[in-house]
Amino acid sequence: MTMKKMVFVLAYALIVVSVFAFTKTTENSKLSLALSNQYAKKMADASEKLDELDSALKQTLLFNNSDGSQKAREDIWRLSSDIKSSVASLPLDASFSTSWMNYLGRIGNYAKEADRSVEPDEYYKVMSQASKNLGVMQDEWTLATAGLVDGKYSMDEWTNRLNATNPDVDWSNMGESIKQYTETDFPLTASESDAMKKKELKNIDEAKVTQEVAVERFKTVFPTVSNEVIGVEKSMPGSPYPFFHIRFADGESIGYIDITEKGGHVLSYLSERPFGKDSLSFDEIKKRAEDFLVAANYKDLVYEESRENSTAWHFVFVRKEPFYGAKVFSDVIHVKVAKDNGDVIGLNAAEYIRKEKLHRQSVKKMDWNEFFHKDVKIVNDELAYVENERLEQRLSHYLTVTRDEHGTIGTYNVIVDAETAEVIKTEKLN
Amino acid sequence: MKKIVLSILTIALLIGSAYATSPVQINAFSSRDLAQGSTGDDIIELQARLQYIGFYNGKIDGKFGYGTYWALRSFQEQYGLPIDGIAGSQTKKKLTAASSYDEKFVMDNLKKGNQFTHYGGKPLSSQVKQGGGGNENVHLPSKYSEQDLKLMANAVYGEARGEPYEGQVAVAAVILNRVEHADFPDTIGGVIFQPGAFTAVADGQIWLTPNERAKEAVLDALNGWDPSENSIYYFNPITATSKWIWSRPQVKKIGLHVFCH
C-alpha cells in the first residue's frame, strides 16, 4: 500500500516537474526568439540606413556650394546618429562597435560643421574618401550580420560565435580597419588635440616629485586630516599621466587623494565617514570652502554655484582671468563640504591643473532686443570663456535670461560668442 | 465677587478662543537662511507657502531652484522686503504671517508620491493628483535628472556594492566618461544597457535596490569627481574572461577593479 502511494506521489511529482520544465523551456524559447527578432530588426534597419547614408554622402559631393548640399548634409548627420544608436544597442564585438560608433559620429559631425569650418575642396576630398571606405564597411557589415538578420542563428548561437576564440567573422580586423579610416579620414583637429592633452594632463612640463613629497603635499593641503596613510601606489603604466594614489584613514574617515607625479598637483580627494546632525549655516559652510581654497593656494577662483545634498554641499568655483575679468568655465574646481562640521571632504581640481590657453577677441556690440524675442528678459550678462563645439575656447556673453511660460518663469543660460554672435549653448536652468 | 469671577472667566474664555482659532504657525521653518541650491523639508514649506498665496506655480519638490528663486523675489518685492532671493528670518516671518501651511497634509502626500496641482485656495482633495511625485532629497547639476541618478545608482550597486567608496565613485565616473566619449552611446541609459557592457545588466543585479552609499557615490560622480582618472573600462582581473580587456592601457587599481582606457 505504502509502495503504491509512493509511486503515485513520484509519478505525480514527475508530471508536475515535466509540465513546469516544458512551460519554462517554451517561455525561454519565446523570449530568445523575441530578442533575436528585435536584434535582427535593428541590424536590418542599420543596413538600410547605411545605404541611405552612403547615398546622402554621395549627393553632397555634387555641389560646390554648401547651400546646395544642406539637406543631404542634415541627412548625413541624422542617419549617422540613428545608425550609431542602433549599433549601440546590438550584441556586437566590443572593439568593433566602439570604432564603428566613433567613425559614424565623425562623419555626422563633419557634415554638420561643413558650412562653418570646411572649404568645399577639402570637404570633397574628405567625403570622397569616406564614401569609398563606407562602401567597403557596408559590404563587410552586411556579410557579418547576415546570420542573425536571415534568422540562420539563434541568440545563443550568435553569442557563442561572437565569443568564440576563432570567430567566423573577423570582428577585430573590421574594428582595426575602421580605426584606420577614422585616423586617415577624420584626424583630430588642433583644438581636439589640445582638449585631449589637457584632459589627459600629458604635457605638464614641471619637475617630477617623489612619493614623499606627494604625501607632504597631501598634508599641506589637508592639515586637519590626521594623515594615517594606509598606502601609496604609483599609477599603472597605461596611465597617460603618472600620479600617486594615496589612501588614508582618519578616525572614522577613510579616503584617497590622487597627486600628479609631475608638479605634485592634486587631482582629486574624497573622504567617506558617518555624518552627524547639520549644525552650520550655508554662509559658514561656503566660507569654509573659500578659506580652504585660499589656504591651498588656489587664489584666482570665484564662486559659481552650490548644491545641497543630504550630508554635504557641493560647491563649484571657476577661474577668473584678469584681462576681461571673464570666468573660464573649463578651469573649474569642485569642493565638497560636510554639513555637520564644515570639514572639506572632497576636492576635484583635475581640470584646473593645466589652465586653458586663452586668446584675445574683439567684442561685437550686440543688440539684444533684436537678438531675443520681446518676451525674453536678460537678468545677467557677463563675459566668460566657454568651449564651443569645435573645442575652441571662445570669449562669450554668458547670459541668464527669463521668459514667462504660462504663469511660471523659465530661466535659461544662453552663451553667445562675443565676436561672431554664434550661439554656443542654450540650457534650461532648474 | 460674582462679577469679578464672571469677568475673569469671560476674559479667559476670550483669550482661549483667540488662541484656539489662530493658525498654528509657531516654529515654522528651520533657523537657517534658505538660498538657491538648498534642499530639504524647509524648502518644501517655503514652496508650499509661496504657492498658497499665489507666488509659486512650480512643483513642490524641496529643491530651491530658479522657479523658487523668482517666486521668492516677487514675494519680497510685494511685501516691501529687501529683494535678494534669500529666505532669511525677516522674509520667513512675513511669509509665515501671510500664508498657511498644513505640514502633515503636504508631507503625507509627498511621501505617498503624489504631487500638488496647486497647494492652497481650494478643497484639500482637489489640490493633489496621484503619482508624478517621489523625489530624492538631492540637488543635481542642470544637465542630469533624477532618473539618471536612480539608473546609475542601480548600476553602481549591482556592479560594485562590495567595493570601497572610491571604487563606487569610479564606476559611476566610467559611465559618465563613456557618455562623453565618441566610441559609446550618448546617453546614460544607452551606455548602461549597451549589450555586453556591464555584468550587472546581463545577470539582472542592476535591479537590486541600491543603498544610500551607492547613491552618494553617484552624486559625487555627477558633481564632477572621477577617481578613475578618465577611464572608460574596468574589470575584475580574477574573474575577467575577455582577452581584449587585458589589452587596454591600465591606469589604476581600486579594490578589486582595474580601471583602464
Automatic annotation (TrEMBL), chain A:
<feature type="domain" description="Sporulation protein YpeB N-terminal">
    <location>
        <begin position="28"/>
        <end position="117"/>
    </location>
</feature>
<feature type="signal peptide">
    <location>
        <begin position="1"/>
        <end position="21"/>
    </location>
</feature>
<dbReference type="Pfam" id="PF14620">
    <property type="entry name" value="YPEB_PepSY1-2"/>
</dbReference>
<dbReference type="GO" id="GO:0009847">
    <property type="term" value="P:spore germination"/>
</dbReference>
<keyword id="KW-0732">Signal</keyword>
<protein>
    <recommendedName>
        <fullName>Germination protein YpeB</fullName>
    </recommendedName>
</protein>
<dbReference type="Pfam" id="PF20769">
    <property type="entry name" value="YPEB_N"/>
</dbReference>
<dbReference type="InterPro" id="IPR048402">
    <property type="entry name" value="YpeB_N"/>
</dbReference>
<dbReference type="InterPro" id="IPR014239">
    <property type="entry name" value="YpeB_PepSY1-2"/>
</dbReference>
<feature type="domain" description="Sporulation protein YpeB PepSY1 and PepSY2">
    <location>
        <begin position="171"/>
        <end position="357"/>
    </location>
</feature>
From TrEMBL, chain B:
<dbReference type="GO" id="GO:0030435">
    <property type="term" value="P:sporulation resulting in formation of a cellular spore"/>
</dbReference>
<dbReference type="InterPro" id="IPR002477">
    <property type="entry name" value="Peptidoglycan-bd-like"/>
</dbReference>
<protein>
    <recommendedName>
        <fullName>Spore cortex-lytic enzyme</fullName>
    </recommendedName>
</protein>
<dbReference type="Pfam" id="PF07486">
    <property type="entry name" value="Hydrolase_2"/>
</dbReference>
<dbReference type="GO" id="GO:0016787">
    <property type="term" value="F:hydrolase activity"/>
</dbReference>
<keyword id="KW-0378">Hydrolase</keyword>
<feature type="domain" description="Cell wall hydrolase SleB">
    <location>
        <begin position="162"/>
        <end position="260"/>
    </location>
</feature>
<dbReference type="InterPro" id="IPR042047">
    <property type="entry name" value="SleB_dom1"/>
</dbReference>
<keyword id="KW-0309">Germination</keyword>
<keyword id="KW-0961">Cell wall biogenesis/degradation</keyword>
<dbReference type="InterPro" id="IPR036366">
    <property type="entry name" value="PGBDSf"/>
</dbReference>
<dbReference type="InterPro" id="IPR011105">
    <property type="entry name" value="Cell_wall_hydrolase_SleB"/>
</dbReference>
<keyword id="KW-0749">Sporulation</keyword>
<dbReference type="GO" id="GO:0071555">
    <property type="term" value="P:cell wall organization"/>
</dbReference>
<keyword id="KW-0732">Signal</keyword>
<dbReference type="InterPro" id="IPR014224">
    <property type="entry name" value="Spore_cortex_SleB"/>
</dbReference>
<comment type="similarity">
    <text>Belongs to the SleB family.</text>
</comment>
<dbReference type="InterPro" id="IPR036365">
    <property type="entry name" value="PGBD-like_sf"/>
</dbReference>
<feature type="signal peptide">
    <location>
        <begin position="1"/>
        <end position="20"/>
    </location>
</feature>
<dbReference type="Pfam" id="PF01471">
    <property type="entry name" value="PG_binding_1"/>
</dbReference>
<dbReference type="GO" id="GO:0009847">
    <property type="term" value="P:spore germination"/>
</dbReference>
<feature type="domain" description="Peptidoglycan binding-like">
    <location>
        <begin position="39"/>
        <end position="95"/>
    </location>
</feature>
